[in-house]
Amino acid sequence: MKVAIVHYACSPIVGGVESIMTTHARLFAEEGYSPYLLAGRGDPASVGLPGAVIPELNSLNPVLQAAQRELRVEAEGAEAAFEEHVEHVAGLLREPLAGSAACIVHNAFTLHKNLVLTAALTRLARELEHVRWIAWCHDLAWNNPLYRDELRPKWPWTLLKEHLANVTYVAISEQRRLEMAHLFDVHPDEIHLVPNGIDPVAFLLSSPQMTAIRERLLWNERDWVFLTPVRITRRKNIELAIRVVAAIRDRGHNPLLVVTGPPGPHNERSGQYVEELLALREALVLQDNVSFLGLEEAEVSDALMIELYRWVDGLLLTSAQEGFGLQSMSERLEKLGGRVTVQSRRGSGTRTLTATLSPSGITSPSAPLQGAEPARDRSGRQAGAHHGHRRRRHSSSTSSDHRRAALSCRPRAWSSSRS
Known about the structure:
alpha/beta, eight-stranded mixed beta sheet, seven-stranded parallel beta sheet, 14 helices, 41% helix
């Protein structure tokens, strides 16, 4: 199934939108779709993607820029000439869009850099009803005071604040979504929120062992991944961490708990505790949600631990007793320059403390949650609430996040019909 992606330029032109276009196209290709870039400058083949360069889509096209300037100063014959350019550009786009199931337009519906293109796309969006139109909005001309002198309160500038009924609108930030809702006079819920993401493999790097672990544990399919960096000893109270994960799973999510340590070396009953934890995991049907790396991997080295701290969403600590652990992790995170949310059980089991470790140490503790049994569920919910929302809605931590971002506005029919 063909998905057209339109912008003024594409790679290898350097720019944020150009980079997002490339990433979206690659993610669509991985999902079995056929992305097709349409841009005024650049070369899709330079990044191994199909597409076409149409100079009239360029934001710096000299002929179209001249026509836009003439229209702005109301030069004689400017409107008729502009209309001719609009129909010409619409004609250039009809053929590549005719065979597309969807068309993602970056910025051209809401930015004034090429109003001929804006008007042509608006016309085609009304004409080509079989195409799923998506306006991916990074910038809004009418909300930017820097552009005030370049806008006019008449067609085609007013197209930039027109909410088209057959177009799905996407904002790249909550602020932009609120601005769009005000500009279009619609409820914010009518605008999808999909912030830009990152490719964690490129951003964080991954050793062969870490890569194998992520693939084996289906890391990218998880809503949240929690790390419990402890040995398997009874005072670490790992059974509570397992039950927290069960509570999150029972709420319809797909979490993963990674316990890194081996059995404690100084207690002859450690083996019995391991068996109890494995039995609990099986009883709660969490074999796919709880991993004991110390039992599954030949070695869990310091280098692997550093990678794990970078790759997880949060630390889940449920120790009945803890001495130097939190301070040790604070120092490690200071070296990493990271920020990880910690769920830590305190006292006799009646309170749970949520704190955040940052390079400056432990900060932002929340109020303790009272009640031993509720604390278990609340701990899980609290752990998931922040990171899960980021992971599922903001697509900023894993490659699956960015895939969800790119595919979030697809019609349901796409999943059953791909070519």
